[in-house]
């Protein structure tokens, strides 16, 4: 017979617990798709830009240097499908669309930003490793803003 405590809501498992169980490591785990969308180069950058405020497509494209129109559209579609981004289309002439983070997207953006911030502050050490490995040749690495190669 179930006990009352069996029906109490519990905290979702932590990443460490999920990894220990192996769900994220399983090939068929559906969370891998979300992980791929959130941690792709463009996914991370879009999440960080949208964390500040709502943006129109053209504003996002200017804010995320180097992203093609096609890749930005695909990234936004994936993040919208995952429930991270809300898309609002206005029927005006000319039509325009605005993108913002959903509450779920805001939670995810906080986590993604922590990783991006760590990468930014760790770039001098990372670049030292690149140099030691001989991969900091012209063409292999792009000069990182604020960090000399």
Automatic annotation (TrEMBL):
It holds the Pfam family HxlR. PROSITE patterns: HTH_HXLR. Gene3D superfamilies: Winged helix-like DNA-binding domain superfamily/Winged helix DNA-binding domain (1.10.10.10). Residues 29-127 form the HTH hxlR-type domain. SUPFAM superfamilies: Winged helix' DNA-binding domain. The keyword Transcription applies. InterPro entries: HTH_HxlR, WH-like_DNA-bd_sf, WH_DNA-bd_sf. Keywords: DNA-binding, Transcription, Transcription regulation. One of its GO terms (molecular function) is DNA binding. This is Transcriptional regulator. It comes from Undibacter mobilis.
């Amino acid at each position: 017979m179930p006990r009352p405590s069996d029906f109490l809501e519990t905290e979702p498992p932590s990443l460490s617990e999920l990894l220990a169980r192996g769900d994220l490591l399983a090939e068929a785990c559906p969370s891998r798709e979300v992980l791929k969308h959130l941690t792709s180069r463009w996914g991370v950058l879009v999440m960080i830009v949208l964390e500040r405020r709502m943006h129109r497509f053209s504003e996002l494209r200017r804010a995320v240097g180097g992203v093609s129109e096609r890749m930005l559209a695909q990234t936004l579609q994936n993040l919208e499908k995952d429930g991270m981004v809300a898309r609002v289309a206005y029927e005006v002439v000319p039509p325009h669309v605005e993108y913002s983070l959903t509450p779920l997207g805001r939670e995810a953006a906080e986590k993604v930003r922590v990783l991006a911030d760590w990468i930014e502050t760790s770039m001098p050490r990372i670049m030292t490793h690149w140099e030691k490995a001989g991969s900091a040749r012209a063409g292999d690495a792009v000069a990182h803003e604020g960090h000399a190669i």
